[in-house]
Amino acid sequence: MIILKSGEEIAKMRKAGRITAGTIDAVLAAVEPGLTTADLDAVAESYILSQGAKPSFKGYRGFPASICASLNEQVVHGIPGPRVIEEGDLLSLDFGAIWEGYHGDSAVSVFVGGEAPSEQARRLVETTERSLNAGIDRIREGGHLSDIGHAVQSVVEAEGFSVVREYVGHGIGQRLHEDPQVPNYGEPGRGPLMKRGLVIAVEPMVNVGSWETELLRDGWTVITADGSLSAHFEHTIAITSNGPIILSRLEAPQGAAVMAGT
């Protein structure tokens, strides 16, 4: 069941999204070769708690950390730990925060040390972020949910990359994962109509090689089946009376206040 959100609920999610975005900034400022992924997790948890919020991920279905930190061939859900990040690593970071019972969710991919190890790796990250923006551009009241995934897939495959099928975006609210699922592929004009009050997390996961994945023995970490690089970007977006608003950004949304949303 798709749960549409009121203006008051969206305002709370906007606060959760701002905290999530601030956490991203804090962690990215700390990223440097020689740190462990556990070090980055500690930075994230400290920031979230300092804002009076709680990490969305810690304890979620038994997940042991506050962020997901996935390196190189790891697609999503990497568990922070003793692994040291190295110059040129492709680091995908997924963040979530709870404010007054509502979740924010966002993800970014960056190169440790700031430089891509190859032209292909650089194109992968740029394409993944561009595909996220293309999907967001298709979010509108009256449109079909599949319009989002079609836009993402079109951008990705035009560059010769592939979109992951087994893991998709999702609705979000008082639960981290709600209906509907938001695939990053498919034909346009299908599935549920997007309505005012819909809040979703759009999160393309893009591989250099095949779209197929494998799950490691830890029960969480997802890797590319062929060992190729993968990148991941995500934003939380609400459809309001002022159109779609990206909630997981620090800057103020365009137009009137989010409280006027529904």
CATH topology: Creatine Amidinohydrolase
* End-to-end C-alpha gap: 19 Å
Mean pLDDT: 95
In CATH terms, what is the architecture? Alpha-Beta Complex
Described by its quaternary structure, the protein is: single chain
> Major β-sheet, in short?
5 strands, antiparallel
By secondary-structure content and strand pairing, the structural class works out as: alpha+beta
Radius of gyration: 17 Å
Give the CATH level 1 class: Alpha Beta
Q: Hey, roughly how much beta strand do the residues contain? A: 15-25%
Please provide the count of β strands: 15
Enumerate how many helices there are, as a single number: 4
Tell me what the structure shows:
The protein is an alpha+beta fold and 262 residues long. It has a single domain (7-251), classed as Alpha-Beta Complex (Creatine Amidinohydrolase). It contains 4 helices and 15 strands. The strands form 4 sheets. The chain has a 5-stranded antiparallel beta sheet. Helix 1 crosses helix 2 and helix 3 (119-137) packs antiparallel against helix 4 (146-158). The radius of gyration is 17 Å and the shape is globular. It starts with 6 loop residues before the first helix and ends in a 16-residue tail after the last strand. The model is unreliable at 252-262 (pLDDT under 50).
